[in-house]
Amino acid sequence: MPSQEQTIPKHGAVPQAPLKTRLWTRTFFTILFVNFAVFLGFNMLLPTLSLFLHGRGLSEREIGLVFGSFTVSAITFRLLANTLSKRFGTMTVVRLGFVTCGLGAAGFIVADNMGLYFLARLMQGAGFAVSSTLLVSVAANIIPPGRLGEGVGYVGLGATLSLALGPVLGLWLADSHGFTVMLLFSGLACVVAAVISLMLPRISIPQGGPKDKGPWLEKSALAPAALSFVYGAGVSAMTVYLAIYCEQQGLPSAASFFMVSTVGTVVARLTTGRIYDRKGHFFVIPPAVAMLVASIMAIIVVPPTWVMYVAAVIYGLGAGAIFPSIQTLSLSSVPPERRTVGSAYFFVAFDSGIGLGTVLLGFVAGFYHSYRSVFEGSIAIFFVLLLCYLTLFAKKPKAAGD
User: Fold this and answer.
1) What is the pLDDT of residues 77-112, one digit of tens each?
2) Who has the most CB within 10 Å: 54, 183, 359, 397?
3) What letters, b where the CB count within 10 A reaches 16 and e where it falls short, cover 38-67?
4) What would be the CATH architecture of the domain defined by 218-396?
């Protein structure tokens, strides 16, 4: 009979190491801070860059093209991250990514034509993509295997907090000190992340893998990537169309909704990782999908303000639980030396899902002449997500290390 620590848990729990293995080291704290800094610099531009470009005389179409160039660049360099890591070293590429992202932000200050605006945004996409993809792999390499879900949740907490603080800081700097100061601060945050990352010890990242695999091929990462894609398509309704819907229905602003949802996201990030590690993803992902569906159903009935904010907290709980859970699935589904590829699959699928979901749900809104139909479509997508999960994972026999 195996010991209790050796028993294979159900539903995908991660059993490789006892949960008492140390997680909170100086290296882990440094990674958390670095991740927060680069996401803070990036998220400062979410509400401000379009205002800046509009002030420079760009049309709505031109602004859309500049923003779209980021997605193309990000997807391309996420796929190249593993190859660049092998050739130049993981932390070298991460630091170069930070600096490139920062230079891209500062580049908008001196840009004076579409070509330079494109170049600045392409630099941001490339730098942010490789650094965020590889940094997750670095973190996964130092997190005790038995606490992978918990550790990944904590790493993502920096991105969650920066998503709440970054836009507010960016708008305040732009209003109080001008766009030049705001862009310089955004770039400086990324450069600070690169400098602080020099404090990290030399971290050995497994490389290599089967010789018959190309640098981008990893079939075992396809199933988690499918979940990531469908999830991205589902949340696109909230990220893109909620502001318009709230304005039409006289609901509190989307900004206040997402600020309140941060409370739920932080709680989920701090708690659900441990549930994932102890009991498995089955005890996290289906309940998280249920919370997302419940929150959106509350929104489409045009609730009073207090219900809207309760729905925001529930939405934050669901999103804060499901995103790191699928990310952990992506990292644990591949061998350690292929985690960079697994991370790239996850992010590329998520970004692609948001892009496709935005387009498809936009067509739905146009066909039914109602933004309510967008959120009804989002609910349908989340049911597809649950079906995909149950098909791909819930009934699959588990082996040690799943």
Assistant:
1) 888 888 888 888 888 999 999 999 999 999 999 998
2) 183
3) bbbbbbbbeebbbbbbeeeebeeebbeebe
4) Up-down Bundle (1.20)
